[in-house]
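Budget justification aside, the reviewers requested a transparent look at the raw inputs and outputs of the sequence design task funded under Objective 1. We therefore reproduce one unedited record. The lines immediately below are the structure tokens for a 121-residue chain.
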């Protein structure tokens, strides 16, 4: 795999940041960073959750979080899908688009607990 280092995002990455991720040439996805900030400072990868575009009247499940377009920075509302978590090379994070508010990030933690079965604890 060859990385286009001219396109990669070179700034700091924080938990709750919204990024465009480019898994393949000419294919972009929106993701939210879930990984702890200490790991974000040192690892060449980042743990993310996929965010899909929200369709009007679409059902949002307990393991998903509706995110306002103002926080996403991509022009549309989105659904953070906590059952679609993956680790990505930092080189494929090409543009920071937004930052989540603390309330939204806490909603993501709650939905992540549901997705991982921690609500039973």
């Amino acid at each position: 795999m060859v990385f286009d280092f001219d396109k990669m995002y070179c700034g700091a990455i924080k938990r709750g940041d919204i990024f465009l991720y480019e898994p393949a040439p000419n294919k972009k996805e929106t993701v939210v960073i879930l990984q702890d900030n200490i790991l974000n400072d040192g690892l060449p990868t980042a743990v993310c959750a996929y965010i899909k575009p929200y369709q009007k009247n679409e059902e949002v499940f307990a393991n998903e979080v509706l995110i306002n377009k103002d926080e996403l920075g991509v022009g549309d509302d989105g659904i953070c899908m906590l059952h679609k978590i993956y680790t990505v090379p930092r080189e494929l994070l090409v543009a920071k688009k937004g930052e989540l508010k603390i309330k939204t990030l806490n909603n993501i933690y709650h939905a992540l607990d549901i997705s991982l079965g921690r609500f039973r604890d």
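The mean pLDDT is 90. The helical segments are 37-42, 69-72, 102-116. Computational costs for records of this kind are itemized in the attached budget.
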